[in-house]
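2.7 Reproducibility. Because tokenized structures are sensitive to small changes in the input, we list the exact sequence used for Riboflavin biosynthesis protein, including any N-terminal residues retained from the expression construct. No trimming or masking was applied before prediction.
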Amino acid sequence: MQRWRGLEQLPSGWGRCVVTIGVFDGMHRGHQQLIGQAVRRARQRGLPCVLVTFDPHPAEVVRPGSHPAQLTTLQRRAELAEKQGVDVFCVLPFTAEMSRMPADEFVHEIIVERLHAAVVVVGKNFTFGHKAAGDINLLHTLGQRFGFEAESAELLGGHTDGVEQHEPPVTFSSTFVRSCVDAGDVAAAAAALGRYHRLEGIVVRGTGRGGRELGYPTANLSTPEFAAIPADGVYACWFTHRQRGATEPEQTLPAAVSVGSNPTFSGTERTVEAFVLDVDRDFYGEYAELDFVERLRGMVRFDSAEELVARMAQDVAETRALLMPR
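Resulting structure tokens (single pass, no recycling of outputs):
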């Protein structure tokens, strides 16, 4: 799969293609359905499939300070897009100038003149152009004018764990997944994503309290800005790590992960700390990924270190039972 940063990297002599456009944060099941439709259209026509996304998030440019929590890094989005058969992952730098482009100009300048789209596949609720003035109806009209087909994909929904089957299904969206993660309901988030919610980053030095005083050394994850961090609590996770610069993971291990400010020791900084089961190793400086499987409990302030240690032992036992059943 080719990866472009801006349309300047578009090869000379570029022909026609099938395009799908969106932020695609989360790459949830609704996104997967949309991308799958675009890939199928591309294969039917013998054309490459181009996924167009934006960086930074348009909301941050239009309303500074409003950047939503990020479910997936651009790198992760590209990896997931490649698995679905996308041929080109194109990131358009979203600028104030782009935010002011009229909808018809956005289509003419980017979709028609630069990408030479034969088919454009977007979500049913897709909007574009200045003040989100363009919608799927306008895209159909512009397609007739400029010579491309416009298709909309239906919004995908379903039931998740904890939702009664007689209740209306939820629509899978990035906003819904963020709300699940923010509430600590990582199981519902996984149902909408089609995989576990993931945090990733570099393992950094922590306070050392877990290793020195409690007997539970942790790998402390430095997460990217805007990362969607689950609600405070303790989680059963899969911990995948690799040396910095390596492309392939070294191994995936079970971990009990604490998210929060460590109230027992009057902590103030919110951290993500992973106690990796059955491994005596310092992961400092390595790149790590945490896949959140299930929330074990909320964050609690204990009256003593002894009570905390007893509860941590229980957390580890529950993690082991959940991830490594006999």
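The chain has ten helices and 14 strands.
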